[in-house]
Amino acid sequence: MKYRSLLEQTYPYKTELHAHTKPCSSCSEILPADVIRNYAAIGCHSVVITNHMTPTQFVGESAYLDAEGYLADYYAAVEEGNRLGISVILGVELRFTENNNDYLIYGISPEDIEPLIRLIPAGIQEFYRTFKNQKNLIIQAHPFRKGCELAPRDSIDGIEAFNLHPGHNSRVAVAAKHARETGLLLTGGTDYHHPNHQGMCLLRTPNLLRDSYDLADAIRAQDYLLDVWGNLILPDFES
């Protein structure tokens, strides 16, 4: 208990890295303001809104969203975050036309949304060559979930090893082992879609994360814990 208390004091700030809101993510059951209120209730300091960005939404004649529509949920969450004193951070969960893989993009701004939409047909390798810079991170979400395949090692910065969506088997132990053996950055998140599932996996950092660039810097620095509903995990980043 002594060491747990010390870890909590050293890493006091809690951030959700993977949350979806409706109507932008059609699979989510929760409105933006409710997402922020639910995380405020469990003492979170920051929430990353990572709504889906898929070919179905943006590519072809049946497309029904644009950049403005995509960002509407994010801005609604920001408004509630400002009211409650919670940092609302922009992220994206991006899927290309090439397969069913999903990628979490951190270290971005609203101005990046339109370029991201245009790159949906590119595929992960071309996307990484085109979009990757020193500020952002490209993290493969739940890479060992059924229907997904591992991206090439030189086209991602890390993997979401601890995806705690209760409706999917993301094979977290296999993912954690893979991150350890390859030296990839390791992250975790709730993959929040449904009521009463908030905060299943949080990032704990020594400093408050205020925006997407703070988040990317914190992950790159590898100075954080994962908090799996109160169980603290210290990732080992040595390869």
CATH superfamily: Metal-dependent hydrolases
Low-confidence stretches: none
Quote the average pLDDT. 95
Q: How many beta-strand segments?
A: 12
Helices and strands in order:
Blueprint lengths: L1 H9 L2 E7 L12 H10 L4 E4 L2 E2 L1 H4 L8 H18 L2 E4 L1 E3 L7 E5 L6 H6 L5 H8 L5 E5 L16 E6 L8 H11 L2 E5 L12 E4 L6 H10 L3 E4 L2 E3 L6
Parallel strand pairs: 1-2, 2-4, 3-5, 7-8, 8-9
Antiparallel strand pairs: 1-10, 5-6, 6-7, 10-11, 11-12
Helix pairs in contact: 2-4
Offer a quick outline of the entry.
The chain is α/β, with parallel strands linked by helices and 239 residues long.
Task: Please characterize this protein's 3D structure.
- The structure is a single chain.
- With 239 residues, the chain is an alpha/beta fold.
- It has one domain (2-233): Metal-dependent hydrolases (TIM Barrel).
- 32% of the residues lie in helices and 22% in strands.
- It contains 8 helices and 12 strands.
- A 6-stranded mixed beta sheet has the order 4-2-1-10-11-12, with helices on both faces.
- The model has no long low-confidence stretch (mean pLDDT 95).
